[in-house]
Amino acid sequence: MNPVAGDPRFFERAGPFTLSQVAEAIGQSAAGLPGERVFNGVAPLQTAGPQQISFLTNRQYSAALAETTAGAVLLEPKLAHLVPSGTLALVSDRPVLAWAQVAALFHPRPALNPGIHPTAVVEPSARVAADVEIGPLSVVGARAEIGPRCRIGPLVSIGEGVVIGADSRIGSHVSISHSLIGERVYILPGARLGQDGFGFDPTPTPTGFVTVPQLGRVVIEDDVEIGANCMIDRGSAQDTVIGAGSRLDNAVQIAHNVRLGRCCVIVSQAGISGSTTLGDYVMVAGQAGLTGHLHIGQGARIGAQAGVMTDVAPRASVVGSPAEPVREFFRQVAFLRRMMRRDQAAKHETDAGQG
Fold it and tell me: Among the options 107, 173, 178, 256, which is catalytic?
């Protein structure tokens, strides 16, 4: 089956659009462009036709570019010379951003369908803006507040007192309690926000461990995206905070009292233990684990499957478990490989002498 972008069974379609309209969407001047050209969609290089737009960000796909029949291709200026004749080069210093803008032009988000589904339950004391969409079998608790133009999917549970800011989207089967959520926040299906943090007296009594009450909240600032099946625990006494503009991939665990700065990126299956603080623009790769009460400096990068047990300096990059600076880690790897080769050579000489 050929790859398809924007299957109409699942995605809204708009257009067609002239080249000048496409240029306007990516913030470029239409001067000098053949504005009469018309495009009806976007597609991969391999399947795009003369009325479709594609994109390229990596030279390793230059073979596909050479054979494409796309009407136009978004790409960096340094790759423009690779565009075949008959295809228009739309150059951009940020081709991924330009692709996002063009794709959104042809495939805008579905329009809201304001109203509360007959099977949804909304407590009378909840404050719900008139243009909010609430899907089937969802529940909105007492004193909850849902701002304008929000979409609440099916089977969502919004607890008492929860606040959701304007233009937010809450996916199906999400549960939210003890949370204050900003504007333009997207929470994908299955996420759990505001549940009890993992807090208890570590010395068991004769009947087991005693749970410490979790009295904080979850605070999600503006323009955050939270992936499917993420878990964000509320704080024990202070708040768990996800900074503005941050992105959490699917299946991320954020423990109680964690604080993320602005525009942090946490990749799938990473876990951050309680009371750890991340500065702005920190990136945590997949399956990394951070112990509690750490400080990760602004702009730091945590490698995939890293085990972070000590503070990380600003703009540092660490890998491995226990995590170490990248250069030190690979220096040790190289040393061990040299030792192994030397040992293998010595064994080979010994075996040859014995033979």
Answer: 256
